[in-house]
Amino acid sequence: MTYNEAIQDLETILRSLETDQVDVDDLTARAERSAELIRLCRHKLRHAEASLDRVFDSLDEEETDEPAEADEPEEEDFNDEDDDDQDTDSYRPARPVQPRLF
Q: What is the pTM for the complete model shown?
């Protein structure tokens, strides 16, 4: 089951709980199914986050392993006292924020 399918099932269960009159036995079954779907979604999100971390880490490793190009002029070091800008050579894109389901 995909993440989107699990989310759709959760939304269906939620809608039915909001609109239907549910007996206790059915409520228990829906709650158990919801818990399974939430666990599945969390697992998939953790797996996706770990995969993205590996991708970013490999990009960082590639960046540090690359030799400097001979054709590129070296940057001069300016030590202006008024220059409070951050070092742009260490730019790294922000990692996606993990969405919170519940």
A: 0.56
Cα separation, 42 vs 100, in Å, equals: 9
Residues comprising the chain, all counted: 102
Q: 3-state secondary structure string, the chain? A: CCHHHHHHHHHHHHHHHHHCCCCHHHHHHHHHHHHHHHHHHHHHHHHHHHHHHHHHHHHHHHHHHCCCCCCCCCCCCCCCCCCCCCCHHHCCCCCCCCCCCC
* pLDDT tens-digit map of 40-84: 999 999 999 999 999 999 888 877 776 656 555 555 554 555 555
* Exposed / middle / buried, residue 41 (Cβ in 10 Å: 0-12, 13-18, 19+): buried
Distance from first CA to last CA of the chain, Å, rounded? 20
